[in-house]
Amino acid sequence: MPNRLAQETSPYLLQHQDNPVDWYAWGEDAFARARAEDKPVLLSVGYSACHWCHVMEHESFENPAIAEVMNRHFVSVKVDREERPDVDQIYMQAVQSMTGHGGWPMTVFLTPEGVPFYGGTYYPPADRHGLPGFPRLLEAISEAWRTRRGEVVQSSQQIAAGLNRAEGLRAASTLLTQDVLFSAFQGLGAQFDDAQGGLGGAPKFPQPMIWEYVLRFWKRTGNDEAARMVRTTLTKMARGGMYDQLGGGFHRYSVDAQWLVPHFEKMLYDNGQLASLYLHGWLAFGDAEYRRITEETLDYVLREMTDPAGGFYSAQDADSEGHEGRFFVWTADEIRAVLGGGDADFALHYWGVDRGSNFEGRSILWVPGEPDVERIAAARARLFAAREPRVHPGRDDKVLAAWSGLACRAFAEAGRALGRADYVAAAVRSAAFLTTAMRDAEGRLLRTWKAGRGKLKGYLEDYSMVAAALLEVYEATFERRWLDAARGLADDLLRLFWDDALDGFYDTGHDHERLIVRPRNLYDNAVPSGTALAIETLLRLAVLTGEARYETKALTALRPLADLMARHPTAFGRFLCALDFHVGPKVEVALLTPPGDGAAPLLAEIFGRYLPNRVAAGARAGDTAQAVGLPLLEGREVVEGKATAFVCRNYACELPATDPATLARQLDAS
Asked: What is the C-alpha separation between 267 and 403, in angstroms, rounded?
């Protein structure tokens, strides 16, 4: 039976007319009843396009048990902030003064005289996100109203402090906090090579998972040392011999501490992860060198490591003609023969060849000074062309699902951020390949594929890395099929690899062949831990779909690792990234585009800045099928026929933005 809101005209209020809550619209009737029954007023303020307003409605206001608590202890008032900006402004100021932040949905507890004594924004139905569950909050407020009336009227701070203390005691044993992130950063700082970047001495590995975390830490804190650590490492790696200065892409690792002499094999997993890392470095710092390295690396993968069917090959050997690095190294005479005259002199100096040989009588090209990309471009192209007729290193042309997932993810993310349609197309081809060719007849993801034949049941890392890639392809295209495919893999991942007794993941599925022990690797190695990326992907899916079960499983797996992450951060870089996402703040963006599109300027704002904890969803206006099951999109409409973006942060939503400047301010808000 509809409640009182059925008589209202506001679409937002009408959305709540079938709630089991005994809602009042704002007015004297509500306060008169509150005075007559000696109950506090529960004021809920929102608007029709507010994502987290709808989440809270579904989770709490549609829940009969929670509604019963509200009806028994409170007089509940629902307000449309667009209809009553006066009410909204008064109580928003009160909430901001009590909590230091505000947003919608706004939840405020008032005396029958309308004086606020406690408030906040979104509350989940159970303890989650570091927030008290709404029913627990309701009971606490009601108990305080009955037994400590004077304190309630005089000071909301005592109640807030009590809730915070209760949360702190619970959090100390069950919740992950940013304290882990700070401890991990301190540990990494103690190992940092101030002169050359990276961690420790020789041999030196790129360790992209660690630098992804340090970059996130900089974003979280603004810590100058974190920025210096990342920038020194990225710059030194890009200018060293570990990077192929002619053909793009990174070799496996450096045998010295200067990134000069590499082990010359090139691995897909390194290049997929490093392309993403350098992209993030460019988005964070605006350094054109990092963008160039991103594009050169991905161009290398397209040119030399891509199967026509859409998958990505695994590796290139270190050796050719029986010698390690033979394909990549040069003598001064060889360079002079190709370039001649002054061009050769400049190139020899630019790449450090004039300093003498650095590898078995030959020279690995590196950049000891500042890059001059325009001046060296012609020489670089000529040397690259001269190198091509050499005997190429052998290529491992099998396709591994997990590694292809890392590369697919990089192409999708770079394509949307750099405006490279060819990168997005490569990501889409890869996603199609991974979801068709690398499946068996029963739909099980396969581990390996070569020459049209896939085999071996996929491992946890295959499922998690492919699912992570599909989420990036969805954000690059806003085609719902990729999100649905990612979600399907996540569901399969939970079914196949989760163990209730363990409260975590195994690396092999329960349908795997029986071994003497069921393997479970929790450490990042050359590729991220499958568990780490599973956690990260589940957390992102929880935000997109609103399904708490994904977050519950992710945090159950992550919590036992808190101490290890703090004490041994070099082994848990990707876990730390997942924890950073969990701790937040997360930025959720919904983009609605009209039939004429016009979304490019908003897309440039959404994807043209470093927002590691951003989750985005998009659809054409009126395409309800794209919004089904995605709370971030449901109920959204374009404003004035224009492409419209909706930004939510910390479970509170901003007003819709139709121009890039407004959207930029919302995205850049701390």
From this structure: 9
Averaged pLDDT of the chain: 91
251: its two tokens: 């070799």
Structural domain spans, the chain: 4-174, 179-248+261-317+395-583, 328-387, 587-668
Q: What does the pLDDT average to over 45-63?
A: 85
Answer CATH for 179-248+261-317+395-583 from 1.20.58.340, 1.50.10.10, 2.70.70.10, 3.30.70.920: 1.50.10.10
Q: What is the pLDDT of residues 116-138, one digit of tens each?
A: 888 999 999 998 877 889 999 99
| Burial of 40 (C-beta count, 10 Å sphere; 0-12/13-18/19+) | buried
Distances (CA, A) of 391 to 273, 299, 325, 334: 27, 20, 11, 16
Instruction: Answer for the pair 626, 480: CB distance below 8 angstroms, yes or no.
Output: yes
pLDDT per position as a tens digit, 10-45:
668 888 999 999 999 989 999 999 999 999 999 999
Cα angle 140-142-146, degrees, rounded to a multiple of 5: 115
Percentage, residues of the chain above pLDDT 70? 95
Q: What is d(CA 138, CA 278) in angstroms, rounded to the nearest whole number?
A: 47
List, as own/partner pairs, every contact residues 506-512 make where C-beta atoms lie below 8 angstroms and the sequence separation is at least 24, other chains included. 506/460, 507/459, 507/460, 507/461, 508/457, 508/459, 508/460, 509/457, 509/458, 509/459, 509/460, 511/444, 511/457, 512/457
Q: What is the pTM of this model?
A: 0.77
Predicted confidence (pLDDT) per residue in 412-431, tens digit: 999 999 999 999 999 999 99
**In whole angstroms, what is the distance from residue 73 CA to residue 145 CA?**
10
Selected from 3.30.300.30, 3.30.70.1350, 3.10.180.10, 3.40.30.10, the CATH number assigned to the domain covering 4-174 reads 3.40.30.10
Q: Do domains 4-174 and 179-248+261-317+395-583 have the same CATH topology?
A: no
